Amino acid sequence: MKLPVMLALLAATPAMAQDKPVLTVYAGESITSEWGPGPKIEEGFEAFCNCDLRFVTGDELSRVLMEGERTEADIVFGLNTDVTARARASGLFAPHGQDTSGLSLPVEWTDDIFLPYNWGETAFVYDETRLQNPPASFAELLEAPDDLKIVIQDPRSSVSGLALLLWVKSVYGDQAPDAWAKLAPKVLTVTKGWSESYGMFTEGEADMVLSYTTSPAYHIEAEGDATKKAAIFPEGHYLMAEVAAQLRTTDQPELAQAFMDWILTPEFQATIPLANWSLPAKLPQDDWPQVMRDLPRPEKTLFYSETEAEALRQPALDEWLRAFSG
Amino acid sequence: MAAGLFRLTRAEAGGAIAAGGLALLILGTLAAVAWVAQGLSGLGPWDWRAVRFTLWQAALSATLSALLAVPVARALARRRFPGRAALVTLLGAPFILPVIVAIMGLIAVFGRNGAVNDALRLAGLPEVSIYGWQGVILAHVFFNLPLSVRLILQGWQAIPAERFRLAASLGFGPRDVARHLERPMLRAVLPGVWLAVFLVCLTSFTVALALGGGPRATTVELAIYQAFRFDFDLGRAASLGLIQIGLCLAAMALARWIAIPAAFGAGLDADHMPAAPGGWHRISDALVITGAAGVLIWPMAAVIARGLPQIPDLPPEVWQAAGRSVVMALISALLALALSLTLALSLARGRMRWVETAGMLPLIASPLVLGTGLFILLRGWFLPQTLALPVTVAINAVMALPFGLRALIPAARTLHRDYGRLADSLDLHGLARLRYLILPRLARPLGFAGGLAAALAMGDLGVITLFASDRPTLPLQLFQLMNSYRMDDASACAVLLMAISFGLFWIFDRGGRLA
């Protein structure tokens, strides 16, 4: 048996960059994957930092929280807005030192620790060849016949599922349980993550899928398919942004700061839309790719502050569970 | 020396060490999570609902899979037809499909716009819905019926041909054969089969959620996931993990209480076929085989039809990941074989029941608890990312162990009972015994177990996201493709993954049957 050879193959680590300082960036699977923004970010930063940017893939926040002050992470990249409260409470992160007044986000952003680099809104996406008369508002969706089938994600296992909870809460407030009671019969199923839902939708199993306002851009740009649309509701859409932060305990403070300084530059921001299929956090609309500029935009963007969202999370989840378990 | 102190044979000592290591791994990681959480936390009402649903669906799925498998296994045991060998191998396929691929296949057949509902609509009949508890059960039966059939079929094949010949010469009808040969065999085999399926379904998560139609289909594993990700409550995760292990132990006790070992004695190994009754039995057997084959193969055919045309367009990274995954799967399979053979041989001597319990534990170990616990235990000594691939290989080997054991234990017991004393009297020990007695006699279950282990390792999504590496495995790549909207590439990747998993399974299984 060639076991030693196979083990050696497995253990072989990527060639170490000689003597260059290493910036360790914890990031999620969707960022570091071949088809995410990770490779471009690495290339772009290494072009001027005289360093080696090393992504460590995985469940970045759980890992940092468990490692505590001993973490080797210098940067945590790609946290969702729903976990910033818990990340902040750990006291592990340091201010980003950026001016956030000129962001192209539809909401005011004053956080001095977590710096957004992209954003989008939750939306129900449909295929116009299969759904000729999509609901024109959230109210119409609730009143739609029950044979209109949607797939959503579970708020307990998915960030977009949690965003839907907060979306319904921000539109319907105390009436949220009634809204869920009307929505529940239309929910074909609830999946663990976004990809299962989206797969079911593209295979024609559901009429609408909980996704993002920016999802149609992928189909237009990469597939030349303009039939996928996001239904834009006048009640507003819930914001989802991804953020980065530097660790207080970093052993590369200058590199980490240089990385944070780079995030809002036009060079970095220009890579976001077509690599991440989301909108850039700081880039004039005229500099967006055509496909993003052409997307219909909601008039209203809804967003809870981190403290509000944290307080609403559990009660909103209980309402949701009750609506489906009746 | 352990062997001297406890008066254990070498085989038993090896088994005890392997089993002790397993128990330490499963319980130690759980303890590590509880330790970081500084204790266990209490459970809420939704958690208890999840426990109830989990138990109910697992019991129903296991009962249905085991009962439906009996006629299929009997028909396959007593009929010979062209393509039978291929069909028996193909029956291994659903079990080793990556979950998401299987869900897509089932939806293509039984979904709202699937073939079944299209046909019902054409016929003017009401549609059926796959979403709800019925979908969860259907998916679990789809996954586990083939495994059950294979295990029961092995039971049939383990009845020596001489007994069937004797039955024929005594003029036994099908009913007498059932009473004197088949039912005792089933009584010995079925509880173990039921247990294996029950335990597999106990940790079901993605399937239960995707086809369950909503939070009514919440399982304990989802509650654990929620405790980790949504609440960051490690104490609750550990409590739930403990409940899963408790359920496992209770189920094992029940299965052991019901099972009675059959004793048919040894026979010659002439390739035999149980007497096949004619008449309507012929027709019913044909129907059973066609029905099972159809239900199992159709969804896989749907997946292949969708993805096959896209395979030439797959990006090169996918092929690299495929190569990496194959190497990992092979090492996992060898590890799993070595471990399960050690355990099975020691169990065959029948004095250490706890070894069997330890061998089944990996089935219900929550991947999340296991991964997090390992991370906590290893982080002080190693860089987690350098461990990513070796840990994945080791975990996959451990996870495949219970299935290997299910196939090996009955065969090893029979071997020990029928040939143990003879081998002892010939002073056949150590490597010689392994080479001349054990490996030849256990070739079939070993091939099956190795194939399962390789295929399961191939399809595993990498239970340990905390150790994740920048060199993705093929299943991870499939997930990444889906996550970046590339559903066409993902469907091609799924076909590739299915083909490789099945190929690995086929090579091992076939090798075992030819040996």
UniProtKB/TrEMBL annotation, chain A:
<keyword id="KW-0732">Signal</keyword>
<dbReference type="Pfam" id="PF01547">
    <property type="entry name" value="SBP_bac_1"/>
</dbReference>
<protein>
    <submittedName>
        <fullName>Thiamine transporter substrate binding subunit</fullName>
    </submittedName>
</protein>
<dbReference type="InterPro" id="IPR006059">
    <property type="entry name" value="SBP"/>
</dbReference>
<keyword id="KW-0813">Transport</keyword>
<keyword id="KW-0574">Periplasm</keyword>
<comment type="similarity">
    <text>Belongs to the bacterial solute-binding protein 1 family.</text>
</comment>
<feature type="signal peptide">
    <location>
        <begin position="1"/>
        <end position="17"/>
    </location>
</feature>
<dbReference type="InterPro" id="IPR005948">
    <property type="entry name" value="ThiB-like"/>
</dbReference>
Automatic annotation (TrEMBL), chain B:
<keyword id="KW-0812">Transmembrane</keyword>
<feature type="transmembrane region" description="Helical">
    <location>
        <begin position="489"/>
        <end position="508"/>
    </location>
</feature>
<feature type="transmembrane region" description="Helical">
    <location>
        <begin position="446"/>
        <end position="469"/>
    </location>
</feature>
<feature type="transmembrane region" description="Helical">
    <location>
        <begin position="55"/>
        <end position="73"/>
    </location>
</feature>
<feature type="domain" description="ABC transmembrane type-1">
    <location>
        <begin position="322"/>
        <end position="508"/>
    </location>
</feature>
<feature type="transmembrane region" description="Helical">
    <location>
        <begin position="85"/>
        <end position="110"/>
    </location>
</feature>
<keyword id="KW-0813">Transport</keyword>
<feature type="transmembrane region" description="Helical">
    <location>
        <begin position="388"/>
        <end position="409"/>
    </location>
</feature>
<feature type="transmembrane region" description="Helical">
    <location>
        <begin position="12"/>
        <end position="35"/>
    </location>
</feature>
<feature type="transmembrane region" description="Helical">
    <location>
        <begin position="188"/>
        <end position="211"/>
    </location>
</feature>
<feature type="transmembrane region" description="Helical">
    <location>
        <begin position="325"/>
        <end position="348"/>
    </location>
</feature>
<feature type="transmembrane region" description="Helical">
    <location>
        <begin position="360"/>
        <end position="382"/>
    </location>
</feature>
<keyword id="KW-0472">Membrane</keyword>
<dbReference type="InterPro" id="IPR000515">
    <property type="entry name" value="MetI-like"/>
</dbReference>
<feature type="transmembrane region" description="Helical">
    <location>
        <begin position="242"/>
        <end position="265"/>
    </location>
</feature>
<feature type="transmembrane region" description="Helical">
    <location>
        <begin position="286"/>
        <end position="305"/>
    </location>
</feature>
<feature type="transmembrane region" description="Helical">
    <location>
        <begin position="130"/>
        <end position="153"/>
    </location>
</feature>
<dbReference type="InterPro" id="IPR035906">
    <property type="entry name" value="MetI-like_sf"/>
</dbReference>
<keyword id="KW-1003">Cell membrane</keyword>
<protein>
    <submittedName>
        <fullName>Thiamine/thiamine pyrophosphate ABC transporter permease ThiP</fullName>
    </submittedName>
</protein>
<keyword id="KW-1133">Transmembrane helix</keyword>
<feature type="domain" description="ABC transmembrane type-1">
    <location>
        <begin position="51"/>
        <end position="255"/>
    </location>
</feature>
